[in-house]
Structure formats: structure tokens, C-alpha cells
Amino acid sequence: MSWLGLKHHCKDITRLVSQSQDAPLPWLQRLRVRVHLSMCAACARFEAQMRFLREAARRYKA
Amino acid sequence: MDASAFAAEIETHRRYLMRVAQLQLRDRDAAQDVVQDTLVAALSGADGFDGRSSLKTWLTGILKHKIVDAIRRKKRAPVPLSALDDEGTIDDFDALFRSDGRWDAPPADWGDPEAALNQRQFFDVMEFCLEKLPPQTGRVFMMREVMELETDEICKELAITANNLWVILYRARMALRVCLEQHWFAGGARRPTPA
């Protein structure tokens, strides 16, 4: 499956998750992230925490 | 509310506004300028406050515009890229991962993090964590997440590439995640322990 880039591991996924908060990812990377998150509880948790961090930063000023 | 009571009410938020401005601008004089502008705008436009949002939210909204203006005016002095590079690289958080790229120190369970958003102490911890970031890194994070500037706008203001920006924001988010985990969410205690 390496042709689909599924060898991407958690470290790369965390970078892509962060990047996706700033710019839409190319579709293939978006797919890789989605597949990885569906199979990796730690990265899924990381992704939820990144969304929380954004929400917290926005509320910080309110 | 009469004018002097309104002015006194606004005055109680001055310190908060200074903290936000200073975190953002990293410059005491510039922070004082924008806070003064904000207070003047607030007092002269007192009718503009309709009481639907809290006074603090209203003031922060004005402050946000003043800070964006200040950043735009300072355009001629972008952050030198070297200052950002000095603050770290994309690899700074490699210790959290094993050599094969999988987690070595996976994120902890934060329980119900939304509940933290209703606690004032949580935001004290958040501020503590923001202040612990390297100065330029913290500033860029504030521009993106607190001022909600678009990425191309930040890149233009700071004369950096999108790639530079992603690396800086990644480092900021990784550091903040670890800091919040340690000081707020640790062990499910959800108690602030800023040191």
C-alpha cells in the first residue's frame, strides 16, 4: 500500500493535521490523514486536541 | 450607566488589554499605544456598546483592530527570518516519537476538555503556556489563532513563506499541547498548577 502513502506515520500525520488548520491539504494528503486517523487512536486524539486548542485560543480573547 | 461609571468600568479591563496587546506585539511601548487607542475609541464611542456582548468582549474586539492596524503600520520591519529560525526547527518535537515515526509519548486523555472553557483558571494556564513560547513563535501563534489573521496575510506581514509559517505554527501547537497537558489536564486532575 505504500503507493498510497499509508506508510505515513504519526509524526508526519501530526504535521499534516497542524497544516490543515492553515490551508486545505491536497486531496491525497487529506485522504492519508483521514485513513490514518480512522486507525490510530493516538493521532485521532491529537487531532481533537488541536481543534480544542483553536477553540480555546478564540475564546481566550472573549 | 452614566459616563463616569462607564469609564470606571472600562478601566477595570485595562490590565487584561495590556496583557493581550503585549503578548501579541511583544513590545511594551507599542502595547501601551494600542491600549490607549482602544480606550479612547471605547470612551468616545460609548454609544457603540449595545450591551449584547460583554464589555470585555467589546473592548477586545476594538483592541484586535488596533493591533492589526499596528502590525500593518509596522510593515517595514518584518521579523527577521533568522529570529524565527533561532527559535527552533520542525524536529524539535521528535522526542515525542520513536525512530519509526510512531508515538513514543502519545497524547493523554483530556476527558471533557470543553468544560475547561468555562473555567477562568484554564485561561490563566493557557496564558502561562503562551508566555512560555519563544517570543516570535508566540507572536505568530497569536496572529493566527487569537487575531485570526489569514495565513497569507501573516506571511505577507512577516515576509516569510507559507512553509516557514506552517513550521512555526506546528512548533507552537505542539508546545502548547504539551504545556496544557502538563499544567491542566495532567492525570485527569484538571487543576491548574502553573509554576
Topology:
The complex is a heterodimer of chains A (62) and B (195).
Chain A: H1 10-20, H2 27-39, H3 41-60
Chain B: H1 3-11, H2 14-25, H3 28-44, H4 55-73, H5 81-85, H6 120-132, H7 135-146, H8 151-158, H9 162-185
Helix pairs in contact in B: 2-3, 2-4, 3-4, 6-9, 7-9
How would you describe what is shown here?
The complex is a heterodimer of chains A (62) and B (195). Chain A has helices spanning 10-20, 27-39, 41-60. Chain A is mainly alpha-helical and 62 residues long. Chain A has one domain (2-60). In chain A, helix 1 packs across helix 2 and helix 1 (10-20) runs parallel beside helix 3. The longest helix of chain A has 20 residues, at 41-60. Chain B folds into 2 domains: 1-77, Rna Polymerase Sigma Factor, Chain: A (Orthogonal Bundle); 80-195, Butyryl-CoA Dehydrogenase, subunit A, domain 3. Chain B has 9 helices and no strands. The longest helix of chain B has 24 residues, at 162-185. The radius of gyration of chain B is 19 Å and the shape is globular. Chain A binds chain B through residues 8-12, 14-15, 18-19, 21-23, 42-43, 45-46, 49-50, 52-62, and chain B through 20, 54, 56-57, 60, 64, 90, 93-94, 96-97, 100-103, 106-107, 109-110, 113-114, 116-117, 122-123, 126-127, 141, 144-146, 148, 151, 162, 165-166, 169-170, 173-174, 176-177, 180.
